[in-house]
């Protein structure tokens, strides 16, 4: 079976998640920061390589966003349970992803083809979510407190809600489009 580099990087990101959570649970924040940064880098790198070297695949179109969601959801849940970030932010992030995933499943169950393409707003949301987790870890590693961190939490929360609403509107438009009879 042939696996290209972008898909390998996405799989590597998924495989890194248990290590990240274990390191967090044992207060090994330097190691967790290193794993998280490496995982975040693979997120940008897999897309760049797929586009630049024409290695886009159908598997990659699903695997990359799944890897992102697993990494971010696991991180947000672990951070909230460890008291590192506000629980309300984790609830927003996880709820958005559950709503989007449920919408995709419903569309597929009613035989509506779903073309998975993230919007600019969704990409910005992902960047802010990654920055929130990475920034919080970095501050822990440096032993510093940053007064603006709550503003980052709020910005991440607002972007998360906005992009979630955008996906809901997209889904409702797809469902309400008239279908041609064959």
Outline:
The protein is 79% helix and 0% strand.
What is the typical, i.e. mean, pLDDT? 92
Q: Which outline best applies? A: globular
Oligomer: single chain
Residue runs with pLDDT of under 50 for 5 or more positions:
none
List the helices and strands and how they pair.
Blueprint: H1 5-25, H2 29-52, H3 58-81, H4 87-109, H5 120-142, H6 149-176
Helix pairs in contact: 1-2, 1-3, 2-3, 2-5, 3-4, 3-5, 4-6, 5-6
Features:
182 residues; mainly alpha; Four Helix Bundle (Hemerythrin (Met), subunit A)
Report on the architecture of this protein.
This protein is 79% helix and 0% strand. The protein contains six helices and no strands. It has helices at 5-25, 29-52, 58-81, 87-109, 120-142, 149-176.
